[in-house]
Amino acid sequence: MEQQSRETFGSQVGFVFAAAGSAIGLGNIWRFPYLAGMYGGAAFLFVYLAIVVVVGVVCFIGEVSFGRHTRQSNVGAFKSINKAWAPAGLIGILAGFMILSFYSVVGGWTIRYFFQAFSGFFADPVASGDFFGAFISDPLMPIIYHALFMGATIWIVYNGIQDGIEKYSNIMMPALFVLILILVVRSLTLPGGQEGLAFYLKPDFSKITGETLLAALGQVFFTLSLGMGSILTYGSYLGKDENIPNVSTIVPFMDTLIAFMAGLIIFPAVFAYGFEPGQGGGLAFVTLPAVFSAMPAGNLFGAAFFFLLFLAALTSAISLLEPVAAYMMEEHGWTRNKAVLIMGSIIFLVGVVASLSNGVWSHISFFGDNFFDFLDNTSGNILLPVSGLVTSIFIAWVWGSEHALKEATNDGTITFAWGKLWANVLIKYVAPILITLVFLSSIGIIPVGI
């Protein structure tokens, strides 16, 4: 009954745009450029591209194959192969729940900054920083924008796979590409931007350290939405005739392309106006508003940039809510409407606490962090790598990489040129070892400077 009534994507393009939307988020347009700025520009880019192939594509193929074979989301997928592993699926569900709780708050920030662009940006990073600090610590305004963002997320997922996620992804992803292309052209034509381009594209391999490798590995793993159930769940909605190796290569390529293009926007602009490329997490909400204020027609391009951030955040948010809703539908018999509305509302309420922890509740500590940072650090540094590691081990060693390869190749009817390498080496040994390194480094067992 479950398999007969299960929703599916209407086309391969719909799956690609939805999965790309899951992967393409704030991590591409905000986090990737500031990491590249911190770790040597082109040197970081070179390492990142290599790891996308060795880890990103490898794990992506595994999760899509696993999801399509079982036709279940996280918990059900594990349980259908080996019931003893059912709790492993809960790790990804919990990770997605926690991530969306604070991610929606940040998504609300992008809406606020989009409107702020039309009233003028700030003349310098100090003014931008003052505005940002005052805004996120306000007890009411961030919650209003958080509600708008979470409301949009709930609405799309409420409408189902084809009429919700696929339909809106097919609109938002092309719009995102158009916006980022316009901003790339504008940034590359700024006087003085060539220095930023050189920083970004001419590698100095002496800058590659153990810290660079681990930062790039972590970024690849997290930006592709691996380990949080999104790709596995989307794979469960994929038709049996679709070419998994192809779509699992296209999506990481699109994800990497957007991250690369984000660097083409940010580094020429930052260097053209004399700002610091390694500014860290404040790059998008503190430094870039000051950059736009110095740029001709900066309000227009600033609005376009923050609308781009909003679209990227929203396409990722819907992929975070879907596995949570799917779990309630499959394991507890809820309807889609009930699952989306109730779980979306709970996530919104948790997000309210996260938002207030940046202001009036900032004095309340959770293991040394405020609640917002606790959600971020726990999900990103612990739950995601653990879930990704468990999933890769389960696919390769419990389900069996030979069964995964059979699913990925549609029972051997399609060509997968490096399929044996993928099944016998990469998914079995390389991916689990590298994911383990990320996890151990994130909790301080392995020093990042190795």
Describe what is shown at a glance:
By secondary structure, the chain is an all-alpha fold. The chain has helices at 2-5, 12-23, 26-38, 42-70, 74-81, 86-118, 125-137, 141-158, 161-188, 194-201, 210-223, 230-236, 244-272, 287-294, 298-332, 336-356, 371-408, 419-442. The chain has 18 helices and no strands.
Structure in words:
- It is a single chain.
- With 450 residues, the protein is mainly alpha-helical.
- It has one domain (2-442): Amino acid/polyamine transporter I, CATH 1.20.1740.
- The chain is 76% helix and 0% strand.
- The protein is built from 18 helices and no strands.
- It has helices at 2-5, 12-23, 26-38, 42-70, 74-81, 86-118, 125-137, 141-158, 161-188, 194-201, 210-223, 230-236, 244-272, 287-294, 298-332, 336-356, 371-408, 419-442.
- It is globular and about 60 Å long.
- It starts with a helix and ends in an 8-residue tail after the last helix.
Features:
Amino acid/polyamine transporter I, 18 helices, mainly alpha, 76% helix
Radius of gyration: 21 Å
Fraction of residues in helices? over 70%
Cα shape: globular
Please give the CATH class: Mainly Alpha
Unreliable spans = none
